[in-house]
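Recap from last week: sequence in, structure out.
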Amino acid sequence: MKRNIVIATVAAAALVGGGTATAVAFSGDSATPSQSSTPRSSVSVPDDGMTEDAREAKAASVTAPQAAAAALKATPGTVTGIDLDQDRPGLVWEVDILGKDSKWHEVTLDAGNAKVLNQRVEHEGDDDHGVAHARAELKGATVDATQAAQKAAASYGTVTSVDLDDDHRASAAWEVETVTKDGKEHKVLVDPKSARVTVAPQEGSDDD
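Predicted structure tokens:
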């Protein structure tokens, strides 16, 4: 899963079943699997000439908020990233969670039915600084990952990724990637305090 996210934030928001999700981000891919293998997802992605993100968005029947809610049922804590991914067998959602045990967890779910396919835990001691930084970024947030996804989806289509990015900006903003039904991809920013939605500057732009 994409792990090059900068610390994310969110205030509590009710999810399916009354769960609460918060999003932060961290780096590092070192992890210990809790299962020896990952079962295959029920969703396959046909090669129909569309872009990869567009094909994945069209094939997935589980939304980003639904994936986050299901992951939290399996591993209580704080959601730290959500990403639709075809790297594993079939199409899956990969959800990163800062667990109540203060460890980083990755939960892999079937993009067709939200069934948990795999869980793994990061090595201890690798992300102490990241945890402290995440807690600092969480302060004052009023918009969580689920709300950011809903805001973006209202105008820009199916959400495939939600991360909070503070690169080259005075303050952090939710970065949401979406795909419309006609296959057009968008990247928008959602302010974590005001919920204001703006189009993200293109790569290489000098604008903040």
